[in-house]
Design brief:
Helix 2 (28-40) runs parallel beside helix 5. The chain is of the alpha+beta class. The strands form 4 sheets. Strands 15-14-13-12-11-17-16 form a 7-stranded antiparallel sheet. Strands 4-3-9-7-8 form a 5-stranded mixed sheet, sandwiched between helices. The protein has helices at residues 9-20, 28-40, 68-73, 80-92, 111-119, 140-143, 169-182, 196-202, 207-223, 228-236, 340-346, 360-366, and strands at 3-4, 46-48, 58-66, 98-101, 123-124, 126-127, 151-154, 160-163, 186-195, 204-205, 244-260, 263-272, 278-284, 286-292, 295-299, 303-308, 325-331. It is built from 12 helices and 17 strands.
Length: 367
Amino acid sequence: MSFYLSLDDVPDLARGAAILGTGGGGDPLIGRLLVEECLKNGKKIEILDPTEIDDDDFVIATAMMGAPTVVVEKVPAGSEAVRSLRALEKHLGKTADATIPMECGGLNSMIPLVVAAEAGIPVVDGDGMGRAFPELQMETFGVYGVSGSPLAVSDENGHTCIVDTGEDNQRMETFARAVTIKMGGAAYIAEYPMSGADVKRTAIRNTVTLALNIGRTLRKAKDKHLDPLAELSAFLKDTIYGHGTVLMRGKIVDVERFVRDGFTQGFATVESFDGGDEMRIQFRNENVIAHKNGAVVAIVPDLITIVDVDLGTPITSEALRFGQRVAVYGISTPAIMRTPEALQVFGPQAFGLHEPWVALEELSAAR
């Protein structure tokens, strides 16, 4: 069912989006503040169920592109993605009936909400990643036949660029990434123009609501002094994700982090509290693989999230610090992201990993 987002919903949505962001997607706090400002100014944000879209509606995905680390120091005004939407509408000669998140994780769960508030259009309750991924071709929209371009890219100085690579979504990513780097490492985009029928066919449905409910679950667990991650695992059983589990609890003993090719990249090492186990997590904006004592315990496209061990509060890649007490939490990816064509686009090999994908629930059972 469609609904209007309330001011009280926003902290829960940001918290849940940070869980699904798997360390990347940009700092949701920044997006949360932008959304709250829109609602405080009396603007409305309608979350539209995918089943309620007309097949001939025109939908455009909106998002931030670039290194999340850069966004922390170059905070958006909130108008950048709207500028991209308008530029793409002008280029195509069509006005969007709705926008949709390209990913439901981190800051990019929030940018479409700001666009919707400013443009006066609804946000479709769904996305193209079911989490956060670092590259534009890594979307179920593209996996199942929607072209990402033409795409509009805008920066905070009012500059806009149109990228059109036809049906080549990989080349679109390469060109848009180069433009983003020239714009200072972070920019705002409008992409994957599609019909309502395309949305119904290719989107991962109801992930905005999912993020909202994840955030609520964690908040209520904290209020009731319950184990937040145990409560989250119980909640996920009845969702399209199905399985969530703690992979390890411990202390961060090392973080190696750098920005390269427009991505925040590096490794985090976690040592168990008793000193008996060590986990090494690799990230490329998002956490992509976790080894425990040298063995793979979770691998992309399954979700790997690092959270505060006591509060269940997600920690983004740019916020990882030596000495933090954390839990590493894994979530199974939904079925639409497990097909051979999907794994070809955002499976382990797409990240330069040599390990094969094995479903999280299988790895958990083996452990």
